[in-house]
Design brief:
- There is one protein chain.
- By secondary structure, this protein is an alpha+beta fold.
- Helices cover 21% and strands 34% of the residues.
- The strands form five sheets. Strands 11, 12, 13, 14, 15, 18 and 19 form a seven-stranded mixed beta sheet that branches. The protein has a five-stranded mixed beta sheet with strand order 2-3-9-4-5, with helices on one face.
- β2 and β3 form a beta hairpin.
- α1 crosses α2, α1 packs across α5 and α5 packs parallel to α6.
- It is globular, with a radius of gyration of 18 Å.
- The two termini are 31 Å apart.
- The chain binds zinc ion.
- Zinc ion binds next to α1 and α5.
């Protein structure tokens, strides 16, 4: 398997969900071993790698920060690029937050279709998990386990007539992501809107970019899937796992988790190199040839 980038540039624009700031995003091809790198074009192209070492404050969205430069709500765009197997990419952005668009990853998938995918001459490197890692906070937990493919299982349980218990399990590929998850939109509860606004969040939120759940039902239906909420949580999980910086060979389980637990999992995983290895072979039978791959140009970040 070889590394990839995109063939041609594509752009989109829109308002940020939390900041309400309008921004323009452009996807730009990048050379092998670049990884996925955000560039704040409004700050002299300041680069922020899509990597666990740059995870900042995480609550209702995932934010990256490097040397005081912030970028919010990276998860939906990264879920699309990661699921599509795009190893190298510049994401140029002229604001502090990735546009929310319709609240799902579908507009980003459409962008990537316009871009096309180019295979590069360098072998792809995978982060292969060797030992389990679990994080528990009360009744919420997330875990990562050895596997020969990238698989996720996501369980949610919200006490609401339209939500309740929902569970998604899948091997992540461009096809499964497109069909099962990409169209699932972000959501919030009507009762949380005022408190979130008071916290300075969801300034760009509207009925156009988030499902709003009332006590009994949904304010702006119809839903795209009966279990759209569980699907969106799985989308968020994949977008946060993208911060591993390399494609994962692992099974990830999230139980009533969220961005905070997802990103803690990535940070703790990267901080402990005894839990994983880097290989250019996706499948075990070929690994004999790759023992010498080691950790080229990849440094595990310090804890946190
Ligand atoms: Zn989301």
């Amino acid at each position: 398997m070889f590394q990839t980038t995109i063939v041609r540039e594509a752009a989109t624009q829109g308002i940020g969900l939390h900041t309400g700031v309008y921004g323009h995003v452009r996807l730009v091809p990048a050379p092998a071993d670049t990884g996925v790198v955000f560039r704040r074009v409004d700050l002299d192209h300041f680069a922020i790698e899509a990597h666990g070492q740059n995870v900042a404050h995480v609550s209702y969205a995932t934010s990256l920060m490097k040397q005081g430069v912030l970028l919010s709500t990276t998860e939906h765009l990264l879920a699309a690029t990661y699921s599509c197997g795009i190893d190298n990419l510049y994401i140029d952005i002229d604001s502090i937050e990735i546009p929310i668009l319709d609240g799902s990853a579908e507009p980003f998938m459409q962008m990537l279709e316009r871009c096309g995918i180019r295979r590069l001459r360098r072998k792809r490197r995978y982060l292969k998990v060797l030992k389990p890692l679990e994080i528990t906070e009360g009744d919420r937990r997330v875990g990562i386990y050895p596997a020969d493919e990238f698989r996720v299982r996501c369980y949610v349980d919200f006490p609401h007539p339209l939500v309740g218990q929902q569970e998604i399990e899948m091997v992540v590929s461009p096809e499964t992501f497109r069909h099962l998850l990409s169209r699932a939109r972000t959501f919030c509860f009507e009762r949380d809107i005022a408190p979130l606004r008071a916290m300075g969040l969801i300034r760009g939120g509207s009925l156009e970019n988030a499902i709003v759940l009332t006590n009994e039902g949904v304010m702006n239906g119809p839903l795209r899937f009966p279990d759209e909420f569980g699907r969106h949580k799985a989308l968020d999980l994949i977008g946060d796992l993208a911060l591993a910086g390399l494609p994962l060979l692992a099974r990830v389980e999230a139980h009533k988790a969220g961005h905070s637990l997802h990103t803690q999992l990535v940070s703790r995983l990267l901080a402990d190199p005894t839990l994983w290895t880097i290989t250019t072979q996706a499948h075990e039978e070929a690994e004999v040839d790759t023992a010498s791959v080691g950790l080229p140009s990849y440094a595990a970040p310090a804890a946190d």
